[in-house]
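Worked problem 6 (solution included).
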Amino acid sequence: MTSSGKSCRRVVRLCACRPRWRWTASGISLLILLSCSGCPAVSNLPAPGELLTLREPRFGRPYLLYVPSRYREDRRWPLVVTCHGTRPADTAGLQMKEWKGLGEMRGFLVAAPELTAASALTPGAPEQIRRQLDDEQAILSMLSAIKAARSIDDAQVFITGWSAGCYVALFAGLRHPEVFRGISLRQGNFNPAFVEPCIPFLDQNQPIQVTSAELDLLRDEAKRCLDWLRMHGLDPTPLEQFSGHRRGPEPVFAFFADVIRNRPWARIEVHEDAADD
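Solution. The predicted structure is:
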C-alpha cells in the first residue's frame, strides 16, 4: 500500500437514569480472552521508527502514532486508524504493538486512539451511540492533527477495529466515507441498533471487509453485520478464517492494498456559493 498505487479522486463542486448493562456473546468471549495466552497481539517485525504518545486537540483524548523510519515530507503517506477492543484484553498500546512493524515494513503510518465505546459490556442504544459519537469526534480531531503535522494521502486513510473496537470503526467509518477510503472489521461485535445513525451517510461504493472465525463466539455477530450491510445496499467483502478469537493485521493490509490498486475513489464535495450583493 503506497501512495504510488492507483487511486482516482474526482471532486465535484456541486434521562438521568442509570443505563441498564447487558452481557452479549462478546462479554462471554472476553472471559475466554482473559484466560487465553495466545490472544494478546504479538509482532516480531522490527519497528525502528518514531512512536509518539499524543492528545488530539478538541477533547484531549490520548492516542498513539507510529511514523515509519523512512518517512519523509516530499511524498504522501497512507494512514491506518486501528480501534482497540475491550480492556484489559485489548488496548491502544496492544493495537500499536500489533501494527507498527507492518507499518514500518509496508510504509504507512498507524494511529491507535483510546476509545470509550469499545467494550463487550454495552449500555442501552442511546448511551452506546453517544459514546460512539464521542469516539468518532475524537478520531476526526486526531486525524486533523495528524494531517496538519504529517504528509498524509487523503485517498489512503483507512479504519479498522478488532472485537468490540468494531463498534467504533464501523460507526465512524460508515458516517464518514469522505474520510475513510475503506473499513475492515476483524471478528467484531455488531448490534444493528448501534449503527442506525449511519444510514443517512451510507456510500454504496465504500469498500468494507468483515472477517469472522470458524471457532469464534462472535462468528454469528459477523454474519449479522454482513446481512445488515447488504440489506442497506453495500457490498462487503467477507473473509472467514479457521481460528478462534485471534487477530493479525496482514489480511487487513492485503484488503486495503487491493482497494488502492483496484477500486477507484470518487469524492464529491458540495460548496454553496455566497450570494451576490
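Discussion: The first helix runs from residue 25 to 34.
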